[in-house]
Fold each of these.
Amino acid sequence: MSSFPRLTLYDTTKQFIPIYWTYCGIGLFAFIANLFIVFIYLSSAQFRSRFTLFISLAIAEGINGAAFLMAGIARLLMEDSFRAMYSYPRTLRSDCALQFENSLLVIGNQGPAMLSLALGIERFCAIRFPTTYRHFKEKMFHVLLILSAVICITSLCVALYIGLVIEKDLLASLPCTLSNAFGFTYT
């Protein structure tokens, strides 16, 4: 009778390592590319005043890239910790919700969407109401930016409330994805 060696968690999940490295690579590329875009826009006073929403969009996309990079690194570190484990550790939804990269992923996902909506509204107003647009252009930029930021922060607060208060004691599986951190109703 032959006995099979007992496999560690690392041995059973190591096929995901290339995916986590891909998270890191794409996140790093997105972060550096958007940092470059922000520096280009900030290099000129005319660009700074004319492309405020585009600068904000590049910053939001940079946050998303940083979140992907951090999520990839966190998952690689988690995978490395599995080398000596034979069963998954008990993980609660609140543990996943407290991971910083998940909060950054929420902001990084919501921010570009809200700013794209703001850009669409701004372009619609510029075409549909040109005289009014010219008069309120500067105020409109700031209102749209603030509104986008408020929506993103509210979204993050709702997600954290779900993960840390409402469903804090639910068991979550690893890795701590957005669904495991904040619930399927949110994501």
Amino acid sequence: MLRDPAKQPVTVPEHGCAPGFWLREGPVPGNGSEMTRRPEACIDLKSKECCVWLPAMSLLTPRLDWILGCCTAGGCESHGQTEFQVQLSSEPAPAHGAKHLLTSGDSFDITFTPRLFGTQGLSRASNAPFTPRQRDLRAQLELPSLQTYPVPPNLGPETAEEVRKERLLEMYREFALDLHTGMYLTQLTSNRDYADIHVQLMEDLTTLKLDQSNGRIIEFPLTNVSKVYRIVKNDDKWYAAGTPLPHSSANTEQIVVVEFMRRKLAFVFKELQVSQRFLICMELLIRRAQQKQALRSLTPTFPPQHAQSRQCPTPRLVHDAMTRPIPSPPDNLK
């Protein structure tokens, strides 16, 4: 049995082999070429009739001498074989900061957006850099004017109001940037089917674009949203949000419904906190779009009528005003 030099280092004494190892140098029978052995690849045998031969060129590759190691037919086969015991475990290996290629996201993949919200409180600022365009969009996003602001899912009611508004703004900005990049969501259709759709927030941050992968892309203005609410589906039964369920199961689904005047969009989530985040941030985006539309409607498009009545002075009017004689003052003022 060969030893793996990378896993079990060998201390080499002056004579070239470790205790219990034996090294022989010389020409290979039938070949005539000079062969050289490294001590790490010696065979752990008490007999001195077996050794491993490798050409001197194998020294250029550190592990080639171990990979190509072999025994002579007359030495190793005459001794007892040693069994290998390999321990296999299904437990995940402890993380040392390195990410596996299958679990780490691809920075060039625009079709996959990792969910940044979770119990660990991950933030986008610490995980991914902002592009100049994302910084501009982030600067445009402020909380709309509300009488009471919702509490983020990962905070309690005892948290200070300033902290809650700060965390709410951060979560709102992260969600808007994720939605602007585009994300895949599960939609519950009108015939109770599930479909994977691509949802993206357009550049104006007021229009939602849906791609159902059937050649049709539909745009939904957020200003036309009439209602946003969450319902729970458990074992093919529907419950309002906050209603205690008779029993929780793996089939429990959190559904966020975005209702327009003529259509409803139902998005399906498995996690409660993720659905709450989607509901809160989507409602903030809708309120922002509606308030911006109301502000535009209050801003007059045309100037007031009294401003239009004033004439712009032409060169003739300016000349007539300058050549007009100045009236003399009254006699009592002289």
Amino acid sequence: MGYPLPGALIAQNALAAETLEPLAECAISVFLTAWDYKPSSSGVL
């Protein structure tokens, strides 16, 4: 799923917003999972 982003960076081509949104959500999800993030009960980070 993340392959279009490195390819676009290497080619110096901009990606469409429709393509970037799912990539960003995936990257954030992977980052939070890697840090074993658990939302607090108050909802404040």
